[in-house]
Write a structure and sequence with these properties.
Largest interface: A-B, 72 and 73 residues
Shape of chain A: elongated
Strand order of the largest sheet of chain A: 3-2-1-4-5-10-11
Distance between the termini of chain A: 37 Å
Oligomer: homodimer
CATH topology of the largest domain in chain A: Rossmann fold
CATH architecture of the largest domain in chain A: 3-Layer(aba) Sandwich
Number of strands of chain A: 13
Structural class of chain A: alpha/beta
Radius of gyration of chain A: 23 Å
């Protein structure tokens, strides 16, 4: 306990996940129990934009049942954004504005749930506050389906997208298998712009060689057309069908995304440029070079919000890191992000730790080499040992009388503004 | 009881579903209990192709646990095909070949699980058998995610794809809502080439006006660009985001699929032709005419195989129609398809009936007008009353130690051939 009393602001940033609300719930419920420290717990509407525009609402005034339901609700119920603040020099006006709003409401704690960019914003905000002698604690809560945050064993959000995608690949793989006399190949695109963690996780679906996915395209492994085509032919000969998982961030050897480079590939096939995603480019290659029909699947945003088959492990850890962020803040710890440290694979055990926000902000974590098979088209046993515990258990959801999930909805009634309007740069 | 003894062949045809294996299980388990009637129960590898090529296997020799697991396994475990036999005149050789194989193995019962085309094949086969005085019973078991089979209240497979897609739309809709400051619109494409039942079912996700889907594009309602654009603008003004569900079979007023016509639309936007699906064409229109960024989701084959969130009602009915087919066959009834007749909406009650295969084969059932809202962009309360009972309950699945579903796999050891090779026409 530091004696620092004041309001807390909780914000969510970047792409939603199945469990980012569970993290928010962990922060909110833990903070609301400590009114002696937190004189109010506010939500920022749409991440840092809500702070800049002074669009705040009182989470203590929300229905506690809806707050609790956040544990079982996907997407970012507080509202999210992709607004990136630059460095303290060029975006100084914005950082000062944030402090202006915080001071006006006596906000002394800032909990930012997000990825690298959010950690960067939180770090810089903390630095400026120290510079101008405004006592406040900024702390980060990790969130990303991409699992590319460094200094943490994994990030909440990844286990759930991994579980849903692996199950989908298993199911769509059975579909391809059953209809191989008609459509022999399927290209199934999954998210992951910069790292192949999500694509790799689909490899969990493959319990035996004959099962999907037969080929995984990872951003970490340059896509060489000839090698890929040979591998597809090989799969068709062996299994009579071929199921390809394609990470959206897969690139050509000269660093172009397949989705963008697709034009060049597709031109060969159809004489005009391709606009779709990576899966469309890969399909064009299969149809041209191998000469078999191919289908494409791309769940898009539905994959990262797929709470209906989220990982219980992931949902519980997401709550935990939110709770730990509040506990750390109460001990006076700022400038840090809560991390997950694995202490044992089997049985799976974790503890939480803390990492410097600045370090986290400036690092990325691609899929390590030891998780990628020699030919680059599959994952290793080491990856399975890493990823398998993260998809364990099914997160609880509520089902309504209409047979569909019931997810939280917050009232988000904005509190009165104490500052003037602000034009976000 | 008719006294007709002999072997039974079970076959699956067309696109897989989450519950077509449950129907197969209903047929197999019911038939295997009556060895006094069925001297053997064979599976045909890949539908009618397996019969033509005499690729049959003994379902009685399979592990009973795997047979039982079919109830909880998606896709077509017997193997499927899209091989369509023409009329008795032009495809006579094929029909005679089927009878040749059936005679060689003393097959007296044929259970064909599929849609219109399969019902057509079964009907014609039955007719030829009567013509040549080969005593046999051909009976149909309905299956289609498209729900466009006539003479039945609904078809097994629909309830599950409806449940999964509605949940996905609910989840992806929350995602769009949370990130409206960055991506305001999402186009979510679902299956249904000829009928809008699946697209309509996504409307179940919309419990209040502000929730997704804000617009549904149905094949039954001609797509008029200007009206659509106006509706998108309207949604953006009201809800600050717009979530569009697009049935893959949506068409322009002159009857072109949006996916194909997409070229024309996309050319306006980017100067070249569009290759993707309907969602890509719709996205191009939104980005050009409305001027906002749009995302696209298209789960593809993963939606129809999504056993991990299938409807329990659907799975149970799928089993039931399989069982009823065997019971009808034992009463000597051939040339029919088992139907589902709804006797009450609330509480939901059904019974099964029988319809002539020929009638079913030659009919289609588009979404009726009373299920479509006046402006054509939504569904009515009448549709909700119809569809809601079909998505009730979650089908049971098994989860392995790796946290992922465990689905059936049959050994499918082919029995020896008794006829010569055959070249399928």
């Amino acid at each position: 306990m530091t004696g620092l009393k004041g309001k807390a602001v909780v914000a969510q940033s970047g792409g939603p996940t199945a469990v980012i609300n569970a993290s928010a719930c962990g922060v909110i419920q833990t903070a609301l129990r400590r009114r002696d420290v937190f004189t109010g717990v506010y939500g920022a509407l749409n991440g840092i934009l809500g702070v800049l525009q002074e669009e705040l609402y009182d989470l203590g005034a929300e229905d506690p049942a809806q707050i609790d339901r956040l544990k079982r609700s996907p997407s970012s119920a507080l509202g999210s954004c992709r607004h990136k603040l630059k460095d303290l020099k060029s975006s100084r006006r914005d950082y000062e504005r944030i402090l202006e709003v915080f001071k006006a409401h006596d906000v002394r704690y800032f909990f930012y749930i997000g990825g690298n960019d959010s950690m960067d914003t939180a770090a810089k905000l903390g630095r400026l506050a120290a510079e101008v002698d405004y006592e406040m604690i900024a702390i980060g809560v990790p969130k990303t389906i991409d699992n590319d945050l460094a200094y943490t064993d994994h990030s909440p959000g990844f286990g759930s997208v991994a579980k849903f995608n692996a199950a989908s690949v298993m199911e769509a793989g059975r579909d391809t298998e059953a209809l191989y006399t008609h459509d022999t190949t399927t290209v199934h695109e999954v998210m992951g712009r910069n790292a192949g963690w999500i694509a790799a996780s689909c490899g969990l679906a493959r319990r035996s060689d004959q099962e999907a996915p037969h080929i995984i395209l990872l951003p970490e492994v340059p896509f060489i057309r000839e090698r890929f085509v040979e591998k597809v032919r090989d799969c068709l000969a062996k299994y009579r069908c071929c199921f390809v998982v394609c990470g959206e961030g897969s690139k050509t050897p000269d660093g172009k995304y397949l989705g963008e480079a697709g034009g060049a590939f597709a031109k060969d096939a159809f004489g005009h440029t391709q606009l779709g995603g990576a899966c469309d480019a890969v399909r064009a290659i299969i149809e041209t070079d191998v000469g078999v029909k191919s289908r494409t699947n791309r769940a898009g945003t539905a994959q990262r919000a797929a709470m209906h088959f989220a990982s219980r492990t992931d949902a519980e850890e997401a709550y935990l890191v939110g709770q730990k962020a509040v506990e750390a803040a109460m001990r006076g710890i700022g400038g840090k992000m809560v991390t997950i440290e694995r202490t044992s694979d089997q049985p799976y055990r974790i503890t939480t730790g803390l990492a410097d926000l600045e370090k986290v902000a400036n690092a990325e974590r691609p899929l390590p080499k030891e998780y990628i098979s020699e030919d680059g088209f599959a994952v290793t046993e080491a990856f399975r040992r890493y990823a398998s515990p993260l998809v364990q258990g099914e997160a609880e959801i509520e089902i309504g009388a209409d047979g569909l999930p019931v997810y939280a909805r917050l009232a988000r009634r904005l509190i009165g503004g104490k500052t003037g309007p602000y034009a976000v740069s």
